[in-house]
Amino acid sequence: MTERRAADHPSPGSDAGRTWHLPDEAATAALGAQLARVLEEGMVLYLHGPLGAGKTSFARALLGASGVGERIKSPTYSLVEGYVAGARPAWHLDLYRIADPGELEWLGLDALSDPAALVLVEWPERGRGALPPADLQLHLAYADGGRHARLQVVTPRGRRLLQRLP
């Protein structure tokens, strides 16, 4: 995993953040674990990228490194999976199969607004208006035989998390 900083002092609402080249799934998992190690509070993270770009692999690694001790399932068919990560609630959503954000009403997404919760959302654009706002956004794309990852700051909490990354 090789890293490049997009800005030394990112500001909320900007494109500031960091980028990495992830040559394989192990590097993607390492990035997820690295982010988990700096979590001191909850976080809402939107995961963007095409099918197969590593969103679920990243989420599994982050959840596992955050203290989820059970099998971490893909929420592709259930849409949402809930866990306990250490002492905090954790939610992993995959909204790929959602055609309209109104379809999310019956999922009981009120629990996602808990400021202590870790919330990971794949395909967040499909839940626009029904989701809590992101603190960080991870953009994954195919590049150079592996993946390119860009972690973008959205809120002050996201900036604090990014600044704690080694």
Q: What average pLDDT do the residues reach?
A: 86
- Tell me the number of structural domains: 1
The counted number of beta strands is 8
CATH topology: Rossmann fold
Q: How would you characterize the overall build of this protein?
A:
There is one protein chain. The protein is α/β, with parallel strands linked by helices. It has one domain: Rossmann fold. Helices cover 20% and strands 30% of the residues. The protein contains three helices and eight strands. The chain has an eight-stranded mixed sheet. A hairpin with a 2-residue loop joins strand 7 (136-143) and strand 8 (146-153). Helix 1 (25-37) packs across helix 2 (55-65).
Main attributes?
single chain, 166 residues, alpha/beta, Rossmann fold, 8-stranded mixed beta sheet, 30% strand
Helices and strands in order:
Layout: E1 2-5, E2 17-22, H1 25-37, E3 43-48, H2 55-65, E4 80-85, E5 88-94, E6 118-122, E7 136-143, E8 146-153, H3 156-164
Helix pairs in contact: 1-2
